[in-house]
Design a protein that fits this description.
It is built from 29 helices and 32 strands. The protein is an alpha/beta fold and 963 residues long. The strands form seven sheets. Strands 2-1-3-4-5 form a five-stranded parallel sheet, with helices on both faces. A five-stranded parallel sheet has the order 7-6-8-9-10, with helices on both faces. A five-stranded antiparallel sheet has the order 12-11-15-14-13, sandwiched between helices. α1 packs across α5, α7 packs parallel to α8 and α11 crosses α15.
Length: 963
């Protein structure tokens, strides 16, 4: 044995591994443990054990295949022993065939296991020690384990070994083929070692054959003398390593071989002596067996108690009832009159009366007959107490027996791993309980009670834990099933193992077993796989992806993935996801609205900046045309001069219309509804989309002179623009005359119907049902977002209307917008002023506008009827008014730098309310929230730039004439 020898135990039973390891470790061996084939292979490759004790039945490997794999991994000679409790004759043949060195059956006592393993330790004797080489040896023993042990030990010395089970078989084998020596046990059936020696010495051909007797029973010197007289070379005591046998063999085989002859009279004496020795051994074995039988009986009683307790616990699920039933039967079988079981519960004692004749009625049982401190000292000491006892005062002995109504008491502590649990009290009237056997019996019963108490409490704890786990599982299931989110479990490949809910028409069965990545949009799979891989790596990950919903529609999901761990291994992924399609749509709409607001703000600013010089241009052109006409009446002018000026004037009107249309789409943040002229909005929208339309199709207008509708002008324009652009994109290029976009209006009941139809390619049936689905688009990437029609649907619905469509593939599509007509209480958004009023008196007019050219143009035009003063600074105008200047009309721009028209009005109102009432606002657009709110509350007249000079003159003259 070497302290450096490493032995590997391969067994899936932890208890077996622990017992074997403990036995081998006590003898100085280093022990490796492997619970499965994978661990065994790893340890073999890394640690290189010299001996392997391998179970044939492993959870992940076939033991008959594993042995070959271990041998391939071993770099040196290794002994591999099959270790199994279920080995048939067929398996025995397979064991030797596949590479096992031997079989060790289960169960086996550690004391016998260690020598057997040591016999198989690699490292054969050196050539000088192999004195058995070329020699044949017969070994006889009725103990198969000792026979195998001797065979391995002596085989390492070079002997050719033949084993037999008894003396008769040995004699037959010797006569069949004479060996060089014989090693035999003494006590064997059929023919013992002494008889074998005498038989050999009576055969002339075998008298010189060396015979060595080995024994564990015949250990007296007279036994050795008898062996030598019978003809054996010697009798030696068996040791685990067979050292004395080996030395005796070496001496016998290398020395002279004396021939022993037995005389007839000597043979008779030897036979008598042999019989006496055999009878003595038999008597000794009987005594030993009697003690063993008695101990077996005690163990059987303990086992009966254990079985009864276990069955009672399983039957009643109540430790008190189980103990009552099992111990009553135990006491009855053991002749114990009655008893009690004391159990510690914290610092208190709880007592249960036990016995075959029902409840024990002895008074004072709860306090151990008024001797509770004595009982507690027994429990603390861990030692049994017999009453009467020489350790107690005689009076205490007598008092306890009298009160217990018994002639003997036995108190045995019940102790568990955590300390004292209580005590078992046995009382008898006819049986003496001080006997050592009964002490052992009572101790065994107490030990079983302790185990059952521990088991029952563990069982109760386990039941409580199971109930708690079941409650938690029920709660978790309720939470998961009622959660608004999707909860799914995926394996390491992404296959769906569980999902709490699905959207119709899908069912859970449709998704269980399906790979989750197949549901993800192709352009989103890389993002999904990255989040999945991060979670598999042990880190929770978040994701936002698009996948197909129950009806095949694209749905945006936002969620989180986390690893599912089983011990140190990640077995899959749990995913919690939420449908954020509406949120995504809202975000996109907000982004779109923000973009539109930015464009609107820019458009409003551009419109204002264009309107100021445009108003001046139009005003000056109007005056120039009038001057030229007047001049033409008095002088000869170029024929085309007036036409050229009027062309310029018409072009200015066209610019004015474009600016007005731009202003319509710049008010996207306004949600105010009013009476809207549908046909005007259509015309403005067509002008905005004209660049898209004019090269693709002819526009056919079919207006029905419909009443105004209750709507938001800019929002309606946004919807119409989307429909017109979609119609243009649905029409193939190249056939302008044949392609049409028809836009019409008609009154149906209390609704105005707006139709937008095209002669495009039409919409396929599979696309129709998804037309208003957010993010659904048939346009190429970068062309459409899939939000246009969804937003249009929301806008129309918010205005109290509906939007529907009809389409036929190859013929075209028609969208219908139905809006409620405006009631009488809804005021028109804009009004028109009359254009002819003659001034009845010459008034005084102040013009305030930061656009100097416009102010001067107004001054020149109005100077024909009134005294006009024009300033470009609001501060100058306020100083004039504050200085006492008074005017019949003040024409004030609304949006000016430094001081706005609103601030001018507020200041003038404080200085002179009458002057404030005479302010007329001249505006290029109210493109701020403050300006829009001001226009909604003020009663002052206003006129939009660019204006017609005649309209302006009419308004000014009318205001002056009223004063």
């Amino acid at each position: 044995m070497s302290s450096t020898t490493t032995i590997m135990v391969v067994d899936d039973n932890e208890t077996t591994r622990r017992l074997v390891k403990s036995a081998l470790a006590r003898h100085g061996y280093s022990v490796l443990e492997a619970a499965d084939g994978r661990t065994a292979r790893e340890l073999m490759a890394r640690e290189r054990p010299r001996v392997v004790l391998q179970d044939l039945m492993l959870p992940d490997a076939d033991g008959f295949q594993l042995v070959g794999e271990l041998r391939k991994l071993a770099s040196t000679d290794v002994t591999i022993l099959a270790f199994s409790g279920f080995v048939s004759k067929l398996d025995e043949a397979r064991v030797s065939a596949v590479g096992f060195d031997d079989i060790i059956p289960k169960p086996i006592a550690p004391s016998r296991l260690v020598p057997l393993i040591e016999a198989h330790l690699p490292g054969p004797a050196s050539s000088s020690e192999r004195f058995g080489t070329g020699r044949r040896l017969i070994i006889a023993d009725d103990d198969p384990l000792q026979l195998k042990l001797a065979s391995f030990r002596l085989g390492r010395l070079g002997f050719d070994i033949e084993t037999v089970p008894d003396g008769a078989a040995a004699l037959a084998a010797i006569r069949r083929k004479k060996p060089d020596a014989v090693v035999s046990d003494v006590m064997m059936p059929e023919l013992d070692g002494f008889g074998l020696a005498m038989a050999l010495r009576q055969d002339p051909t075998l008298r010189a054959l060396p015979l060595l007797l080995v024994t564990s029973s015949y250990v007296e010197s007279s036994d050795r003398q008898l062996a030598q007289r019978a003809g054996a070379n010697d009798l030696v005591v068996r040791t685990p390593d067979l050292t004395e046998v080996i030395e005796l063999l070496r001496t016998t085989l290398t020395g002279p071989s004396p021939s022993t002859t037995l005389e007839p009279n000597e043979l008779t004496e030897l036979e008598r002596e042999r019989n006496r020795r055999v009878f003595r051994q038999l008597e000794r074995q009987v005594l030993l067996n009697t003690g063993l039988a008695k101990r077996c009986s005690e163990l059987a009683s303990e086992l009966t108690v254990l079985t009864g307790l276990s069955e009672a616990v399983l039957k009643h699920r109540d430790v008190d009832t189980a103990l009552d039933e099992a111990l009553a039967a135990c006491f009855d079988a053991g002749g114990v009159t009655a008893g009690a079981l004391y159990l510690l519960e914290g610092s208190n004692l709880r007592v249960r009366s036990l016995g075959s004749d029902g409840k024990w009625r002895a008074g004072g049982l709860e306090t151990f007959f008024d001797r509770e401190p004595l009982l507690r000292s027994v429990m603390s000491s861990g030692k049994a107490l017999h009453v009467p006892s020489s350790d107690l005062d005689p009076e205490i002995n007598a008092e306890l027996l009298r009160k217990a109504e018994a002639n003997a008491l036995l108190v045995v502590p019940v102790t568990g791993q955590q300390g004292p649990q209580g005590a078992l009290l046995m009382a008898a009237r006819v049986r003496e309980l001080e006997e050592a056997d009964w002490r052992a019996f009572a101790t065994g019963v107490a030990s079983q009670i302790s185990q059952v108490l521990t088991l029952a409490r563990a069982y109760a704890d386990a039941e409580a834990a199971e109930r708690k786990a079941a409650d938690h599982a029920s709660l978790l299931e309720a939470v998961v099933q009622s959660a608004p989110d999707y909860v799914a479990q995926l394996d390491r490949d992404g296959v769906v193992q569980f999902i709490n809910r699905v959207d119709p028409p899908r069912t859970r069965e449709d998704l269980i077993g399906k790979n989750w990545f197949e549901l993800v949009a192709p352009d989103q799979r890389e993002t999904a796989r990255a989040a999945f891989a991060k979670a598999l790596g042990g880190t929770a990950s978040e994701f936002e992806i698009q996948a197909s919903g129950g009806g095949g529609d694209p749905i945006w999901f936002q969620g989180r993935m986390g690893p599912v761990r089983r011990g140190a291994h990640i077995t899959g992924i749990v995913m919690v996801a939420r449908d954020v399609t509406d949120k995504k749509q809202t975000e996109m709409q907000l982004m779109f609205a923000d973009r539109m607001a930015s464009v609107g703000t820019l458009a409003a600013g551009v419109a204002h900046e264009i309107n100021n010089p445009l108003a001046a241009v139009i005003a000056n052109l109007d005056m120039a045309i009038q001057d030229v006409v007047d001049l033409g009446e008095r002088a000869q002018l170029p024929i085309d001069l007036v036409d050229e000026l009027r062309d310029a004037r018409n072009s200015s009107d066209r610019v004015r219309e474009i600016v007005r249309d731009l202003k319509l789409f710049s008010r996207t943040q306004e949600e105010r509804h009013g009476a809207v002229n549908v046909e005007k909005v259509i015309d403005s929208t067509l002008r905005m989309a004209w660049n898209e339309v004019r090269h693709r199709a002819r526009v056919v207008k079919q207006y029905g002179n419909v009443p105004r509708v209750n709507a938001n002008e800019s929002r309606l324009g946004q919807v119409l623009l989307n429909l017109i652009v979609n119609a243009v994109q649905a029409i193939p290029e190249g056939n302008y005359e044949g392609n049409q976009i028809r836009i019409g209006t008609v009154l149906e009941g209390e609704q105005v119907i707006i139709r937008v139809a095209d002669t495009g390619t039409g919409i396929p049936p599979e696309v129709k049902r998804r037309m208003f689905t957010p993010f659904f688009t048939t346009k190429p990437v970068g062309v459409g977002t899939g939000l246009g029609l969804a937003i249009s649907h929301r806008i129309v619905t918010a205005m109290g209307g509906t939007i529907t469509f009809d389409s036929e593939v190859g013929k075209g599509t028609e969208f219908r917008i139905a809006l409620p007509i405006a009631g009488p209480q809804v005021q028109p958004v804009t009004t028109k002023l009359p254009t002819t009023t003659i001034a009845t008196r010459r008034g005084k007019v102040l013009v305030i506008d930061d656009e100097e050219s416009l102010g001067q143009a107004i001054r020149r035009y109005l100077s024909q009827d009134h005294e006009v003063e024009a300033v470009t600074s609001a501060r100058v105008a306020l100083d004039l008014i504050a200085g006492g200047a008074r005017y019949d009309v003040i024409l004030c721009d609304l949006m000016m730098p430094q001081i706005t028209g609103m601030e001018v009005h507020s200041t003038v109102e404080k200085l002179d309310p009458k002057q404030a009432a005479r302010i007329v606002f001249v505006s290029g657009g109210a493109f701020t929230e403050a300006a829009r709110s001001f226009f909604e509350t003020t009663t002052n007249p206003r006129i939009e730039k660019p204006f017609d000079l005649k309209t302006l003159r009419h308004l000014v003259n009318e205001l002056i004439n009223e004063q």
